Amino acid sequence: MNRRTALRSAGVLATVGLAGCVDAVEEHFQGSFQGIIPIEIHSEAERSHNIEIEAYDQQAGRQTYDQSYTVTPDQTVSPPHLEATTQSVRFVRYDGTDEEQADVREVSVTPETMLVSVRIHDDDLVIEVQRGDSDGEPTENETIDNETAGELEDESELPDNQTESDSDTNSDSGSDANSGSDTSSDSDSDS
Q1: Per-position DSSP letters for the chain, written without gaps between them
Q2: Which of 84, 91, 137, 152 is the most exposed place for a label (fewest CB within 10 A)?
Q3: 136, 142, 143, 149 alpha-carbon torsion, rounded to 10°
Q4: What gap in Å lies between CA 118 and CA 76, rounded to an integer?
Q5: CATH tag, 34-144
């Protein structure tokens, strides 16, 4: 075997070896390149509240996030960001005195989610999810609060004679401002 053949073989082996390393490095860092979803928590309450944040990746069946904070009045907290994957995020507000769960809210985030904003009140927990399209332009906001959670519970208890399209109409009107919540409560009392 001459020198030229030996050098050529060494070059081919080195190239093949590096290609395998590049694939392994790319696979290792793939999760980090997917993006992040910032979370902002602001307290508008008159006393301190404990907040617990948990996120679950439904496809992988694993918990991806678990943080707890004590938020004082008029304080804004920016916890570590969520991974920009499709997951379910649960926020639990505990009363500052007895450590009982006062409010529990659950929202879904996707890679298109741009921001999750949490506002704490003494008697409520409001979650706002800002979503964008694939270009990063904001397209919609979703707000979860006590009124929205109550309407969703009421819709699950609809009478059997009401059609599915009627329930969709009620849920669309319930997502409007305060006028929609009056309409859905009137329709519940009529039936």
Answers
A1: --HHHHHHHHHHHHHHHHHHHHHHHHHHHGGGGG-EE-EEEEE-SSS-EEEEEEEEETTTTEEEEEEEEEE-TT-EE-PPPEESSSEEEEEEEEPTTT--EEEEEEEEE-TTEEEEEEEE-SS-EEEEEEEE-TTS-EEEEEEE-HHHHHHHHHHHT--TTS-HHHHHHHHHHHTSSHHHHHHHHHHHHH-
A2: 137
A3: -150
A4: 10
A5: 2.60.40.4150
Distances 74 to 94, 102, 122 between C-alpha atoms, Å:
17, 19, 12
Q: What is the pLDDT along the chain (191 residues), one digit of tens a residue?
A: 688 888 888 888 888 777 767 666 666 665 445 689 999 999 999 988 899 999 999 888 899 999 999 999 999 999 999 988 899 999 999 876 667 778 899 999 999 999 999 999 988 899 999 988 655 454 555 666 554 443 333 333 333 443 343 434 444 444 444 433 333 334 344 43
pTM of the model: 0.56
